[in-house]
Design goal:
By secondary structure, the chain is of the alpha/beta class. The strands form 2 sheets. The protein has an 8-stranded mixed sheet, with helices on both faces. It is globular, with a radius of gyration of 22 Å. The N terminus and C terminus are likely disordered.
Length: 403
Amino acid sequence: MTKDNDKTGRAGDGGGVVRVVLFDADSQASSKLRESVESIAGVRLLETTADPNAIDVLLGKTSADVLIANLDPEADAIIAAVRSATKSHDSVEFFATSKSEDASLIKAAMRGGFSEFVHLPNELDRLSEAIGTLRKRSEGEGSLGRIITILGSSGGVGCTTIAVNLAVELAEKSGREVALVDLNFLYGHVAMMLDLEIQHSIADLCGEGKNIDEKLLQKAITKHSTSVHVVPRPREFDEAVGLSAEACVPMLTLLRQMYAYVILDGPSRSDVTAGAVLDLADRNILIVQPLVTAARNAKRILSALERAGFEGQGVEVVCNRAGGGMSHLNAQRLEKSLGTKIVAAIPDDWTSVSASINLGEPLAANAPRSKARDAIRELADLIRGPSTEPAGKESGLFSRLFK
């Protein structure tokens, strides 16, 4: 099994991210199938395997939206493995590919739980269309929610301020409830910035031996008047022992089914399991200040993420406290230094922001006309993208059999 590169979709280019696990035991065609899958816009290839017994395990440990399985050369064994996997992974779509268009094979795939059958290499467009349908479905509000991580290039760059206020603005603009999760297990301030008292925390939901469902999650969430629902950091330091970003993936996957948007303050730069959350996220936003120290850290982080498979599109950079009179690093210089585009800039508005923090109120309540709030609202618009209605399937195996 191998870890593969990120091909993240963007709001505005036709849909959200579709996370794929690829099964292919055909050694003669495997590289071509992988290349075909990676060429499709919006695909994030999480894992590949040639072992049918690994399918259920991989779907269990990843955040896959779809399994693409090449039925060649042992269709019966592969269909049997998928039939077993469908029983415990009802949120995953299953697509079959084959060199054959035999009607009996298509019928067997349909009975085995596959929803699409693609004849390769001649029908790559059909595979792309099926992925596109999933992308539109994930992008449309009212279906699966989107996870957005807010990462810091260094301490004190304003991640929590941006995460909290971004959640508030997304709730207002979408008219929907938004989840906000504090992944800074030791020193997180999400609850404090909304003047919320911690009753239950992320430690009650995540970690070894924790099994959660929607009912338990609803009890543990702290609700703010802005329709932002908070999962705060642990109350005490010792409750954070054993917590990791990876341990939070089951909770985040459930939140994604419950909320239009799930905003994460984190994961921490020092968490070696952070990649599990970055894989799950639809957008990873790296916050940098116009300071040499923050810029150098950001460059190192971007390089590390690129080596881990988050190439170019995997992370977006936002400059916070831009335009400060003491800084010689403007957005253009930062872009040149980092070698990547800065997608948004939050102006230096310390008076409004500091007052908001100290009062435990979002900018929307304390400084609704502040420049910082205006910029965060623009960032919310960027994340929401153009409105897209969920798309239904116009064709499937029945149409393939009886066209």
